[in-house]
């Protein structure tokens, strides 16, 4: 970039001086568009010319040369440690021995980012008969992320979520606001740690993708990793049912779909192949909540999974096997206790690349004991006792930078068990899901 343009930009970004110099450089005429910016910087002692009295404003400047100018501006008080230029050239300033550069990296101690997602779901099929929630749902979900720097190794993260439901009791719809995430992220030596309320993601989200009050630690070795977590499932927001108190005969308070749990995962990457095996022990998993019997069908469950995915160019293929073992489950001898998930995708929309797009499809065959809180946008929870099987197809497109639109279609049905048709949902759950997700 030309020197004259760099210094004009520097003035716009916050470098200031109070006086003009009398034409400081012989090759910078008073009428030049950059004269004001360069003259102010020269008057402040921030920039110097060449020994022959010229400025050479058409010369291309390196980042290192610009960092030297920023260092002078800092030394003379023309800018402060919180200036955007200091942040931009922090690494070069460090190399120059300007210690304030490191302070500037931490000056903005709390950063705010967010996402806004407007979505619409159209639901059809026999599985929704008698469902008083309606066959269509639309909402705007806004999430604000707060990231605070504790020190070089630790950060505090929190997330505030607001949802506007456009099918509420009045014209403006219903809404809720929840403080959903609050956790520390950092490392102790080679151990990476998450601690607090965070989103735990187990077996690609096919077993669990929801928030938990837990501690997760991970150690990497070569191309592999070993991860372990212990805590309590805390997804009361997603599941709005109430806990049933048999002694009182009433539904008393919101409750999560599971209680305490622990999980271990072992995986790694070998070229284009990624593999992982997990084991999860869930105490008091609620199998009856989706059937309208919350708290009445709670049993301990143990689930292990093994899966792999392979990438070839823009294509990715994946396969996952799941095996559950509930201590007690109504008619456990009649229902399956395993599951399979197969996926295929091509490319994918990228936030920073307008026009980028992708296609993807999955096939599911999961028994009730192999899922706790699924990552999908389909209505898998309509089949609480048997589990579900079916497929989804979808695609996404980056409409503009940080704006991605997605459309997904799900067709799911129950894994029927002979002799239990009276209390299992026999219809299809067909869901057309669409959304636009904005990142800021």
Give your account of this protein's structure:
This protein has 440 residues and is mainly β. The protein has two domains: 3-106, no CATH class; 109-439, Porin, CATH 2.40.160.10. Helices cover 12% and strands 48% of the residues. It has six helices and 18 strands. The strands form two sheets. Strands 1-2-3-4-5-6-7-10-11-12-13-14-15-16-17-18 form a 16-stranded antiparallel β-barrel. Strands 8-9 form a two-stranded antiparallel ribbon. Strand 8 and strand 9 (250-254) form a beta hairpin. Helix 1 (3-13) packs across helix 2 (35-43). The longest helix is centred in the first third of the chain and has 13 residues, at 63-75. The chain is elongated. The relative contact order is 0.09. The model is unreliable at 12-21, 237-246 and 248-253 (pLDDT under 50).
Task: Briefly characterize the structure.
The chain has 440 residues and is mainly beta.
Write the layout of secondary structure elements.
Elements: H1 3-13, H2 35-43, H3 63-75, H4 84-88, H5 90-95, H6 100-107, E1 110-124, E2 136-149, E3 154-165, E4 174-188, E5 191-202, E6 208-221, E7 224-233, E8 242-245, E9 250-254, E10 260-270, E11 273-286, E12 298-312, E13 315-326, E14 338-347, E15 357-366, E16 388-400, E17 403-414, E18 429-439
Antiparallel strand pairs: 1-2, 1-18, 2-3, 3-4, 4-5, 5-6, 6-7, 7-10, 8-9, 10-11, 11-12, 12-13, 13-14, 14-15, 15-16, 16-17, 17-18
Helix pairs in contact: 1-2
